[in-house]
Design brief:
CATH topology of the largest domain: Immunoglobulin-like
Radius of gyration: 21 Å
Number of strands: 9
Structural class: mainly beta
Largest sheet: 5 strands, mixed
Strand order of the largest sheet: 2-9-8-4-5
CATH architecture of the largest domain: Sandwich
Helix content: 10-25%
Strand content: 25-35%
Order of helices and strands: EEEEEEEEEHH
Number of domains: 2
Length: 146
Amino acid sequence: MTSQPLYREAVIVNAFMHRPTITSLVPATAVVGGADLTLQVNGTNFTEDTYILFNNGREPTTFVSATKVTTGVKPSLVGAPIVVPVRVNTPGSSESNSKTFTFTATGMQAVSASNTKAEVQDYLDEQGIDYPSDATKADLLELAQG
């Protein structure tokens, strides 16, 4: 009788998830003591399980798409200008890179020239401010900065 080696079939499941990344925040600033707003986090590799870490705290997060998640921000609860980190995390993956959100003193702008035209448009849409469809980025910034 010849002995045959026993082999077990092994199934390897690739549970690797791509690391989420943040490309931008809209808006990236808010005025201390200002009105509540919706923070839009743009990036890549978001899933329905992705959540936002705002100033190191896990926030209730709405999944919009693989490139966009949102959460509420309450500038009325902030007492002084401060810069806070924003990251996203997807369980089973590592945390994203960090972007900063700035709470500014009264009268400072909520968007700047460093934002893309699309980000300024998103900001204006969130604020309910109408703009012409052929407006330039400079025109949009002027509207946003009021």
